[in-house]
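Q: Got a minute? One more chain.
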Amino acid sequence: MLKAAEYAEEAKEISPPREQTNATPQHKQQKKQQKKQQKNRQVELERAVEVAVATTVEPPGLTMATIGVLESCWRQKNGTPRQFTLCPSSRATVHLTFGDNPFNALDGLQEFSHVYLLFHFHQNGDYNRKQMKIKPPKLGGPKVGIYSSRAPHRPNPIGLSIAKIEGIEGNLLHLSGIDLINGTPILDIKPYIPRWDSIPDATAATWVTEPPVPPITTITFAPKALQSLEALKGQLRFFSPGEGPGAIMDGIREALGCDPRSTRLRKKYGSKVEFGFCIDVLNIICEMDDENHAATVADVELWPHDQ
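A: Always. Here it is, folded:
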């Protein structure tokens, strides 16, 4: 018995044959009969497809357990890097909670440099999960199919990321190069294995490799912002005061360099309004200069939610 997809494929392939010139009456009758049989067969296949679709049974729902929660220097979606390689200075810690002895699950992971994080997009909110086309920010407006993008709003809100291992303490996994926000539920952790996971000849769409939205190439810090960074460095949670302001300044530069603004915000306001985002416990206030692909960190203050 043919499956629904096979019925549909066979139905597409059926097409009436070409008429032959100077054919005998008997041959014409045979061709006519053949066309009729093919038409009947096509109707039969189309009906079979309809029946197969109508009787398809949805599989039972899946239940997954959260194995831990991510504590991240990115406190909200706004400003968080869209890919893990964009901000290597960013930091986070996975707090493992699953099992009687969660720390046992990390045994041996110290022999690897990077890990995959399978996680839940827990802040998607009320979104139409059946919407099959989205507008990637880097594309600047046009739509692509959801499966050709890494957009968070998907039929199943599950994400995949890679992070660098910075250390392991008991049930704590310290990471860098993170692109996930604070409080992200972690579903699984797997080691990254270059021998099997790296594909040197892999290709990607040109809008990914050569995005039409240009990066921000010039980033400066106003004197007021530098003074604030120096004054607030002792309150940082992910960047040690002993590192000075230089470490978190690198994180700010990396975040701004890939222009974290949404397509709507960039097109509607451009350089007319200030742009702000949070890293660690700091609210970074920026002035954007789209004409020169530049940004100035005008001021830095404590993020209001942490006061």
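A: Residues 15 and 197 are 44 Å apart (CA to CA).
Q: Perfect, thanks.
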